[in-house]
Here is the input.
Amino acid sequence: MQELRGRTAVVIGGGQGIGRGIALALAREGMQVAVLDIERDAARRTAAELEALGAKSLGLRVDVTDAASLAEAEGAVTTALGPVHVLSNNAGVSAPQGPITEKSETDWSWVFSINLFGIVKSVQAFLPGMRAHGQGGHIVNTSSMAGLVAIADLQVGVYTASKYACNGYTEILRAELAPEDIGVSVLCPGLIDTNLAQTSARNRAAAFGGPMPEPAPMPEAMRATAMAPEDVGPIVVRGIRENRLHILTHPDASLALVRARFEAIEADARAQARAEASS
Ligand SMILES: NC(=O)c1ccc[n+]([C@@H]2O[C@H](COP(=O)([O-])OP(=O)(O)OC[C@H]3O[C@@H](n4cnc5c(N)ncnc54)[C@H](O)[C@@H]3O)[C@@H](O)[C@H]2O)c1
Here is the structure.
């Protein structure tokens, strides 16, 4: 999608962090931007920042686990800002670190309800309107470098599985929507300086055990190596314009990890092909 100016974007999970960075960048391109988040005040704060930049905006509470909440938001956004052209599905949560074998069924349901099914439900809510206006559009689903490679030492196994699912979903969606001129990308950030662990803990719904005590902030030494969330926004804008399947914040690091993963797959495939040929 080349022409962003004057068109409408929706950023879900835009109250803070990466989503706020994406919303700021889209507003700077001249878009109207609706900011949706489970934290209503945070959504409104970002919307006020966008208004201060001169962009028409609104901030609404939405819960991506709830299809009715998404449908209501879709109606409100379309009425206030017009038909939607860009959809950023950026809401996400991370469960506390630990071995994957020790994670409960509730941990799995919670993380997947947002990181995978939240995106699926959001697409179900917003895609009909995008199709109906017939002017094309773009959907960006936020995954992670953890959606490209599985690193056991990080102890975020459930999160990793949910992001792999997000990548698979997004690749299929892209192929299906290409004939309709709706581009689809998966954003795979490396380490970004946000408070994801804290927002995840305080917003966990009652159905999944309710809010948890917020973990300590990211250690300073780690924070120093993280990218600023405001720097992710322009990368996403470029990815939309170039219609990239993968939008990477750390392309060199991603390349090394992905190459190692695919070399391992290739090695297994070759070994098995050799074994079959000689049996
Ligand atoms: N920070 C990183 O290093 C990093 C790296 C890779 C991927 N990501 C991904 O980036 C995305 C944004 O995370 P972030 O790091 O900016 O953290 P963040 O906590 O600042 O942003 C996540 C936002 O999602 C919102 N949210 C949570 N549950 C929701 C729900 N049910 N409905 C609607 N909104 C909900 C939160 O309130 C928050 O504003 C996530 O999908 C995360 O997995 C983050």
The mean pLDDT is 98. The beta strands are 8-12, 32-37, 57-61, 84-89, 137-142, 182-188, 246-248. The chain has two domains: 8-248, 254-279.
